[in-house]
Amino acid sequence: MKSLFVSSFVLIATGLINFTHAQDRLSGKSFATRSVVMGQHGMACTSHPLSTQVAVEVLKAGGNAIDAAIAANAMEGVVEPHVNGIGGDLFAIVWDAKTKKLYGLNASGRSPYNLTLAEFKKRGLTHIPPTGPLPVSVPGCVDGWFELHKKFGKTPMPTILSSAIRYARDGYPIHDEATFYWDYMIQRLGSFPNVKETYAPTGTAPNRGELFKNPALANTLEKIAKGGRDAFYKGEIARTIDAFMKKMGGYLTAKDLADHTSEWVEPVSTNYRGYDVWELPPNSQGICTLQMLNILEGYDFSTIPWGSPEHIHRFVEAKKLAFEDRAKYYADPAFAKIPVNELISKSYAAERRKLINPEQAARRVEAGNPALRDGDTIYLTVADSEGNMVSLIQSNYRGFGSGMVPDGLGFMLQDRGELFSLVDGQNNTYAPHKRPFQTIIPAFITKDGQPFMSFGLMGGSFQPLGHVQIVMNMIDFGMNPQEAGDAPRIDHQGSSEPTGEKMLNAGIVTLESGFPYESIRELMIRGHQVGYALGVYGGYQAIMYDAKNKVYHGATESRKDGQAAGF
């Protein structure tokens, strides 16, 4: 999550930071919070225990990983509406055990036909606002469910969605993290129609442990379960969204919804020290992970300790270079020519690596010539007894979303359109019926053509940084999947963005508690600004497959309320 980035950071100038320790453990890293969960027949890792349990129930009833992932995502929209829901978009990578192949799904929505760049200019806007009707794009989540189900599913959709419907109608206790952000959302968005009626029916945000019900969302999910994706995009739900947006002065219409389609895409990869790391191509930011890994592969991390100034400095400088390309090139490929193969090539990385000064933080870098701060998201991963694995990420973008809650539907529409640029002539410049730059990215790793790990992190612009850190923690620093996620994390803010901002100085490095002060001091000497930030380090889930013993190893996020469970 990125909502509470602390811009008024404090430079670290004293030696008060010590290594973070969980309680004493018999083995493993001192920062590990729990053991890896192991199971032979199935595994589910999500950011909420109820969602994990729903996924496991589907698996035990004979459903496959795809069925269970859809069920878990639907449940997440009920129990964690502060980070996802059917008003948002979805991306997924699926390992299909039958064909022994990865499949990528881009289920992101497009901007309204009737909203133009000229309209933003007429209003004098330089950026699309985060709330109200203007940042609303077509929600792609529901179509994503049905595309996944049509291609891979086994269990009927009414059965898959039944648990989410039941919990929405009967209620569930609010968990810690949701409570923290729920109150903030009511303060920020509570003046919009239907927000308090839906999310704070007593007039205030629900307290920790309080039972919360969303009968309107239960009804909406029931209609989707019975009527399929067309019930959402062409039926009564679409007409309700159309009428509400007109009433709010918005531009999203029934035609925008009716014309929506998801896209099956080929995942792209780079090889990092013998492991193939897979991401989805733009309009998402997935290839930023591959660009960073290619740059970092040129350094011998067997001689560079984890948490050392050399490790952190090289990581941050590689991020700055990759983010310049991200700002310039990443966009909807239907509207822009994006040199994906060149951007993720080893030769291009070698040229970019030459720009890194090992002793000095770069204050400004430019995009190469190969020929966002906020974001609230859920990530989940599921594996089944047949060997299928799903890496799925879904989001409304900024917290609950835009503040637009259509009458009687029980969910908020996303504000993903905020991620367009309003600067003429850029790859990501706003246009009608165009997909905005997307921060949400699922990931997958294969080894010698076989599945090794399905993983991902939530958290806006942090996600590629998080992906790279997980890969390095496991491959370079020898951690297991749980340790790789529990390890203290590095973030950097201030890079150029696809929304038009430019990096004008070195930016800010923020470090979780647990990095040695000696490293922090050396980073400052090298010209880095170093500080703290609250809640910016993402949320991680992973399933690793041990092919020799045929065992799944599940890991979940110690910073969230999640659960990994297997059997």
TrEMBL record:
Record carries keyword Iron: no
A molecular function GO annotation: leukotriene C4 gamma-glutamyl transferase activity
One GO term (biological process): glutathione biosynthetic process
InterPro entries reported in the protein's UniProt record: GGT-like_enzyme (IPR052896), GGT_lsub (IPR043138), GGT_peptidase (IPR000101), GGT_ssub_C (IPR043137), Ntn_hydrolases_N (IPR029055)
Keyword Mitochondrion found: no
Pathway: Sulfur metabolism; glutathione metabolism
Signal peptide (residue range): 1-22
Keywords (A to Z) from UniProt: Acyltransferase, Glutathione biosynthesis, Hydrolase, Signal, Transferase, Zymogen
PTM: Cleaved by autocatalysis into a large and a small subunit.
Catalytic residues in the record: T377 (nucleophile)
EC number(s) per entry: 2.3.2.2, 3.4.19.13
Coiled-coil regions, chain positions: none
Catalytic activity: an N-terminal (5-L-glutamyl)-[peptide] + an alpha-amino acid = 5-L-glutamyl amino acid + an N-terminal L-alpha-aminoacyl-[peptide]; an S-substituted glutathione + H2O = an S-substituted L-cysteinylglycine + L-glutamate; glutathione + H2O = L-cysteinylglycine + L-glutamate
UniProt: L-glutamate binding residues: G460
Pfam families xref list: G_glu_transpept
Subunit architecture: This enzyme consists of two polypeptide chains, which are synthesized in precursor form from a single polypeptide.
PANTHER family in the record: GAMMA-GLUTAMYLTRANSPEPTIDASE (AFU_ORTHOLOGUE AFUA_4G13580)
UniProt similarity note: Belongs to the gamma-glutamyltransferase family.
Name listed for the protein in its UniProt record: Glutathione hydrolase proenzyme
Protein source organism: Fibrisoma montanum
Source lineage: Bacteria, Pseudomonadati, Bacteroidota, Cytophagia, Cytophagales
